[in-house]
Structures are given as C-alpha cells and as structure tokens.
Amino acid sequence: MKYYLIAGEASGDLHASHLIAALKAEDPQAQFRGFGGDLMEAEGMTLVRHYRDLAYMGIVAVALHARTILKGMRQCKEDIVAWEPDVVILVDYPGFNLKIAKFVHDRALCPVYYYIAPKLWAWKEYRIKGIRRNVDEIFSILPFEVDFFEKKHGYPIHYVGNPTVDEVADFRLTPSALGKSSIALLCGSRTHEIRDNLPRMLAAAEPFADSYRLVIAGAPGIEPDYYNKYVGHHKVEIVYGQTYQLLSEATAALVTSGTATLETALFRVPQVVCYFMQARQLASLLRKILIKVPYISLVNLVAGREVVPELVADHMTVSACHAHLESILPGGSAREAQLAGYEDMARRLGKPGAPQRAAALIKSLLTSSKNAHSIEE
Predict the structure, then answer these.
(1) What's the confidence (pLDDT) of residue 261?
(2) Hey, is 105 helix, strand or coil?
(3) Helices marked H in 176-242 — which ranges?
(4) Which residues have C-beta within 8 Å of that of residue 84, sequence separation ≥ 6?
(5) Three-state DSSP state, 64
(6) What pLDDT is attached to residue 294?
(7) How many whole angstroms separate alpha carbon 234 and alpha carbon 215?
(8) In what side-by-side order are the strands of the sheet with 182-186?
(9) For 219, which DSSP code?
(10) pTM of this structure
C-alpha cells in the first residue's frame, strides 16, 4: 500500500519514523512519501519537503512566513492528488494537518488517519468538529484521551500506547563521565523558555551544588553561548544529545512542561515541573480561562492526580522551586510518594510496542476497507 505521512516538527519526525519501520514489518510492499524530516527519510520515505521549511511558531512568525506556509500546503495537496495514496497519516501538527485532512476528505481521495492526535483537551476544543468530519481514525498515545474523545464527544479512537515508553525502554546505558549524583536541568527547547526558567532553576539548585553536579540538557539548535548568558557564576555543565544518559543517572530534576516530564518520570527521576512566564499574574489568570485541563504536565494528566509539583507562572519562584527540590532529593519528604506515583502512571501508559500496535491496526483497517469496497463494487 501507499502511505502518505505528514509531520511538522522534530518529535513528529521521530515518532513517524518508528511508525514507518513498524508499517514496513506489517506491509513489506509498502511505499512511503510525505512531509517530514531526516529520520522519516532514513526509514525509506520519499521526502517531498522537510518540516524545518515550514516550522514556524507564534502569531508573528506565522504571519511573516504566511506565503511560505501557504505554498507548502498547496504543494502538499497537489502531491497527494498526484501520488494517489491509500491513506494519509497525520502526525500531530494540527494547524497544517487539519487543513490537509479537510482537503483530502472533501475530495474523497483516501482515508485520513491521525497518529498522535491534536491536544484538543488542553485548548481549541472546537477543532473536534473538523476531526469528526474529516478524520476517519485516531491512534492515540495518551490514555486519558479515550475519555475525552469517546465519552465527552462520542468519537471512538484507538489507544495504542505511548512511543516514549518504547524510546526509554530501548535506551541502552553507555559509559559516561556525568556521574551518578546530579540534578538535571531541562529548561525547555525554545529561547524564551530558557530565558525565563534557567536563571530561576539555577538559583534554586545552587545550594545543592556541593553535593550534586548541576547539568543542563542542551537543546538542539541552541548554542552554548546562549546558555552562558544565564549561567554566570553557577557551577554547572551543559551536555548536548545526552538527555537520556543524563536522566538515567540523575538523582532529581527540574523540568519545563512537555514530553520531558514524561521522559523524566519513565526514568524514575523525581522532578519539579517549572514554567515561569512573563507577566506572571496575567498568565495565571489566562491559564484559568484558556487551559481546559487541571495540570500542565503529562505525568499528572496521565495519572489523573498530582504526582509531581507544578510551579507555573506566578507560582514559579526561586524559593518555591528550592523547597520542592529539597523535598524530592534522597531523604526528602516527597521523594518516595512521587516514585510510587510514577509506577501508577507507567501502568496507565501500558507496555512498549506503540508503533507496532498502531501499524497493525492501520494495516488491518485499510485491508478491511479495501475488501468492503471490492464487495460493494
């Protein structure tokens, strides 16, 4: 069969590459084409356009590059029509992908499947109308999404497990000079996140620097000089491309929200979730109005309760961060309870094998659809 995949960022490229590998095992004659990145191309997909050409975030950046984005979308639509795939598989990236879903559905070109659904449970819930109309199947990687889509909106989906479980399980410990007594600082992948959070993280962790090494997980594309603007006198190291190595050896961590919170938990590293924002009081008010879920970390959302502390907006102060960090270090009052909460979270996520389960379902559903179509004819 012919599979057209669209991913719009690095994480989507990673997850989609694993899905392609699993689909090849299910369907040895499979052909792959689409928008994505180097990892998808390495698995054998014909790369029509790299995601970095279209990866603009924020209202201003999108407005400035609107012509490029629209040109890319037009190219994607024309390429799908010309190639005539058996299915279009969308990977997150909702601003772009939901428009492609509408185009494919309106022209009845082929089924549209979504692997890693848009986070409608957090914001832009109105998008469920477009998904219900234009997306044939969703393969979810977050267990709480089942209740959101099925119970709240009556839209059946498939929970296949979480690929981060696979990625952590596949990790193999290699020799490292980092040492086993470190505090990991995962301060985000964007410059504004680093600017807002790293100085406060360092100030909170500095009193423990005599007992623990402070290590920053450097983000791809962020030069050391940018971190050095905020490091100052602090005794801290920066490592690149070693986040899993760092987490495998860390005693505790300070982490911004996102997949990093889930990765940290799966490595069983106690953490404090930190997300400072400018205009903190206004940000806290807007969070209450705009964000539809009680937590920002995937750990707490999956567990359905507060397993890790979340210091967001006006709650992200140096003193609060220091106190919570102290409580999760060995001998701290909250460490064991957090580790127990991780076990509950891991049970809810399920076992490794998310890409394989998704690929088997995709192949089965497409085969059934083709057989049904043949009978009708």
Answers:
(1) 96
(2) helix
(3) 191-205, 224-231
(4) 2, 109, 110
(5) helix
(6) 83
(7) 11
(8) 236-240, 213-218, 182-186, 250-255, 271-275, 310-312
(9) P
(10) 0.87
